[in-house]
Design goal:
The chain has about 450 residues and is of the alpha/beta class. The chain is about 40% helix and about 15% strand. The chain has 2 domains: about 200 residues, YjeF N-terminal domain (Rossmann fold); about 250 residues, Ribokinase (UDP-N-acetylmuramoyl-L-alanine:D-glutamate ligase, 3-Layer(aba) Sandwich). Strands 1-9-18-17-16-15-14-13-10-11-12 form an 11-stranded mixed β-sheet, with helices on both faces. A 7-stranded parallel β-sheet has the order 4-3-2-5-6-7-8. About 50% of the residues are buried.
C-alpha cells in the first residue's frame, strides 16, 4: 500500500528532519534525484529549466547545476526571481539564462523541459506566459519537480498545468499524483527518498503487490461454500442485461456459487450461465440495485433480511433501509453519490474524497466511488484508492460487472473496503492487459487469466 500525504503533512515531516539536524540539506538531496532522472530522459538537445521563485525552483536550479556538466542548460526565470544560492550554483556551472521568447524558441530543438516553477502548497493555475509555454511542450518530454506546476497539491482538479512525462516527488505521493484528472497530468510518478519519514496517513493507494497478496485463493479443503456464495437480485424488464453482467463479474472473480433471485427469466440466465442456481437460498453476500430502473424498498428489505453484507448499486442506493449497515458496500458513480447526499454533481467531482467521507459517515457503510479514479472510503474516513486503469473501461455495464465482482469478494469473507479496492483494481488491471473497446462482459471473461497471473506477481 502506497501512502498519500498532504502538503501540511509533508511540511511537518520535513520540519521534523530539520529539528533533528538543522544542517541537513534536503534541497541538495532532492536536486540530485531530479538530475538523475533528467539524465535518463534526455537524449539530445539542450535542457530548458522553467524556474520559479521558491524552493521548487531551487531544486530545479541545483539539478541544473549538476546537469550542466554533460548538457547545455538554459534557465528561464519565469517569475523574474529565483532561489539565490541555487541560481548562483547554476550560473557557476555554466547554465545560461534566457527570457520567455528565447525559452519558447528553444523548444524546437530541446531534449527536455524541467518544470520547476511551483511546488507544494502553491496556488493552482499558471501565469499566462507560463501557461502558453506549457501548452507548447507537446513534442518535448517534461520532467516536473514534485508535481506539474499549475496543479493544486491536495486536489485532483485538472487546473491548467504542465503535462509531465515524469514527475519526481519526494517521500510519498501527494493527492494530485493519484486523484483524477490531475493524476493524468503527472505521467510516471517517481517517489524519491530524501530521508524524510512518511507520516501516518488516512489516504493510501493499492498497488499490484497488495492485489496479489490479498486476492482470495482456494486451497485443498475449499468447497463452494467456503469460497463464497453470492446472491444477486439485479435486473428488470427494462434492463435485463444488468443481471447477466453482475453474474458474469461474480463468476469470473471466482465465486464458489452464484445464486440469482431477480426478475429475469430462468432460461434467460441459465442460457448464458448454466452454473447459476436460480432462486434464493444460503449465501454469504448479496448484490442489489444494478438494472432495477427505480428504487424498490421491498427488494432492498429482502436483501437486508439475509443478514449478510450487501453490495448496494445504482437504484438501490435510494432505498437504503434503516438499521445497521456494518460490512455493507455502496457503489455509486458521481451522479448517484450526489443524489444520495442531496448535492450537485460538481461538488462531488471537485472533492471526491470529501464527498465519499460524508456518505460513509452518514450511512455507516463503505463507499466505492466509481470513475476515472476509484475511491474506497470507510466510515472512519480512511480512503483506499484502487489501482488505476485505462479510460476504455468507461462503458455502460462496467459498474454492473464491478458490483458482481465485489459481491463475490464479500462472500469470500473479505471486509468491505478490501473487497471494493480489490474488485475495482482487478477490473482496471484486466482492462489494462486487454486495451481497446472491449465491452464489460468480454473483459469479465478475461479476468480469470489476470487473477491466475497474480500468483506470479
Amino acid at each position: 500500500m502506497r501512502p498519500v500525504i498532504s502538503t501540511d503533512q509533508m511540511r511537518a515531516a520535513e520540519q521534523a528532519v530539520w529539528d533533528a539536524d538543522p544542517d541537513v540539506d534536503l534541497m541538495a538531496r532532492a536536486a540530485a534525484h531530479v538530475a538523475r532522472h533528467a539524465h535518463e530522459l534526455v537524449e539530445s538537445g539542450p535542457i530548458v529549466v522553467v524556474v520559479g521563485p521558491g524552493n521548487n525552483g531551487g531544486d530545479g536550479l541545483f539539478a541544473a547545476a549538476e546537469l550542466a556538466a554533460a548538457h547545455q542548460v538554459w534557465l528561464w526565470l519565469a517569475a523574474g526571481r529565483a532561489h539565490d544560492a541555487g541560481l548562483a550554483a547554476a550560473f557557476e556551472s555554466g547554465c545560461r539564462e534566457v527570457d520567455a521568447i528565447e525559452a519558447m524558441e528553444a523548444l524546437a530543438g530541446a531534449g527536455l523541459v524541467i518544470d520547476a516553477f511551483t511546488g507544494l502548497g502553491s496556488r493552482p493555475g499558471l501565469p499566462d506566459a507560463v501557461a502558453l509555454f506549457a501548452e507548447a511542450c507537446v513534442a518535448v518530454p517534461v520532467l516536473s519537480v514534485d508535481m506539474p506546476s499549475g496543479l493544486a497539491t491536495d486536489s485532483g482538479v485538472g487546473h491548467p498545468s504542465f503535462t509531465a512525462a515524469t514527475t519526481v516527488t519526494f517521500a510519498a505521493e501527494k493527492p494530485c499524483h493519484v486523484l483524477q484528472p490531475a493524476a493524468s497530468r503527472c505521467g510516471r510518478v517517481v517517489v524519491a527518498d530524501i530521508g524524510v519519514d512518511v507520516p501516518d496517513t488516512s489516504i493510501r493507494q493499492l498497488d499490484d503487490a497488495d492485489l496479489a497478496r490479498w486476492w482470495p485463493r482456494p486451497d485443498a479443503v475449499s468447497d463452494k461454500y467456503s469460497r463464497g456464495v453470492v446472491l444477486l437480485d439485479t435486473g428488470s424488464a427494462h434492463y435485463p442485461g444488468a443481471a447477466l453482467l453482475g453474474i458474469s463479474g461474480a463468476l469470473h472473480a471466482g465465486a464458489g456459487m452464484v445464486r440469482y433471485a431477480g426478475p429475469a427469466a430462468p432460461e434467460f440466465v441459465l442460457g448464458r450461465f448454466p452454473s447459476v442456481v436460480v432462486g434464493a437460498g444460503r449465501c454469504q453476500a448479496v448484490v442489489v440495485g444494478s438494472g432495477w430502473g427505480e428504487a424498490d424498498e421491498s427488494r432492498m428489505a429482502a436483501a437486508a433480511a439475509h443478514g449478510v453484507p450487501v453490495v448496494v448499486d445504482a437504484d438501490a442506493l435510494l432505498a437504503l433501509p434503516d438499521g445497521p449497515r456494518d460490512g455493507w458496500l455502496l457503489t455509486p458513480h458521481a451522479g448517484e453519490l450526489a443524489r444520495l447526499l442531496g448535492i450537485d454533481r460538481d461538488e462531488v467531482e471537485s472533492d471526491a474524497i470529501a464527498a465519499t467521507r460524508v456518505a460513509a459517515a452518514r450511512t455507516g457503510a463503505t463507499v466505492l466511488l466509481k470513475g476515472a479514479a476509484q475511491y474506497v472510503t470507510e466510515p472512519d474516513g480512511r480512503v483506499t484508492i484502487a489501482t488505476p486503469g485505462p479510460a476504455w473501461s468507461a462503458q455502460a455495464g462496467s459498474g454492473d460487472v464491478l458490483a458482481g465482482i465485489c459481491g463475490a469478494l464479500l462472500a469470500a469473507g473479505l471486509p468491505a473496503w478490501r473487497a471494493a479496492a480489490l474488485g475495482a483494481s482487478i477490473q482496471a488491471r484486466t482492462a489494462e492487459f486487454h486495451p481497446g473497446p472491449y465491452p464489460p462482459d468480454a473483459l469479465a471473461e478475461q479476468m480469470p487469466m489476470v487473477i491466475a497471473g497474480l500468483d506470479q506477481a
